[in-house]
Design goal:
Length: 250
């Protein structure tokens, strides 16, 4: 596997990096490198195009309304169209919080402006109404693996005021503890093909090594459909996850 090269495209890394979202990049990079896979991380900023290499992961982090407005403008041209095409061709994209919101049809700000999204997911996000609390805290959720239908649990941290409503898009997970997309229907995030969106921030992948490996496999199998990942010693990560999961169940 040493000749395999993975490119991680960190979209708007200097603007969308709330609550340790770069931790997702670090987790992907290290778990690939520990297996002898060469990794290049490209920071893709405003005005810069996407340059897929054939074996790619694209990551969005979270940000505030001001940053999202700048991103919406940047994504309204060829970059957004290129990202949609990447998803349609099986490319791997993970959007977190603000990045996730911009993967839908639109994101409505507190001032009522509707920022256009990329349209990867059939969904939209509205601001919280008067009396609706911000959705903050640790989350435990149940995820069905795209391979074999196995069910896993994930732990993470959410902090958002927006309410996301899904249309003809399946949720990424079902909430066991926490709020999720809107605090009402139990859905967390969205998933379509190899595109994933979630409100769980940058400790998501470090806390959930099986999910990190699933994203890596999705990307690597774009160039070798038979590739498998060597197991790693995840005792420390699994102990940390178990501790958090038991606390949230309690």
């Amino acid at each position: 596997m040493g000749r395999t090269r993975l490119t991680i495209h960190h979209l708007y890394a200097d603007m969308m990096n709330l609550y340790g979202d770069r931790g997702n990049v670090i987790a992907l990079r290290k778990r690939a490198e520990w297996r002898g896979i060469s990794v290049e991380v490209l920071d893709v900023g405003l005005g810069e195009g996407l340059r897929p290499t054939g074996c790619d992961l694209f990551l969005f982090g979270g940000g505030q309304d001001r940053e999202q407005a700048l991103l919406a403008s940047d994504l309204s041209g060829t970059k957004g169209a290129d990202l949609r095409a990447i998803v349609e061709n099986g490319g791997v994209v993970l959007g977190v919080c603000g990045g996730y919101q911009l993967m839908g049809h639109h994101y409505e700000t507190l001032e009522g402006e509707k920022l256009p999204g990329v349209g990867i997911f059939d969904m939209y996000t509205r601001p919280g109404r008067p009396g609706e609390a911000r959705l903050i805290g640790n989350v435990l959720a149940r995820v069905r693996s795209p391979e074999g239908g196995d069910v896993h649990e994930i732990a993470g941290f959410e902090n958002h005021g927006g309410r996301t409503e899904l249309g003809e898009t399946e949720p990424f997970a079902q909430v066991i503890a926490g709020h999720g997309n809107n605090g009402r229907d139990g859905a967390e995030g969205a998933r379509r093909l190899n595109a994933y969106g979630t409100y769980l921030h940058g400790s998501l992948l470090p806390k959930n090594p099986w999910l990190t490996d699933q994203l890596l496999l999705n990307a690597l199998r774009q160039v070798d459909e038979n590739i498998e990942l060597e197991p790693l010693d995840d005792a420390v990560e699994l102990d940390a996850f178990s501790s958090m999961a038991e606390r949230l169940r309690g």
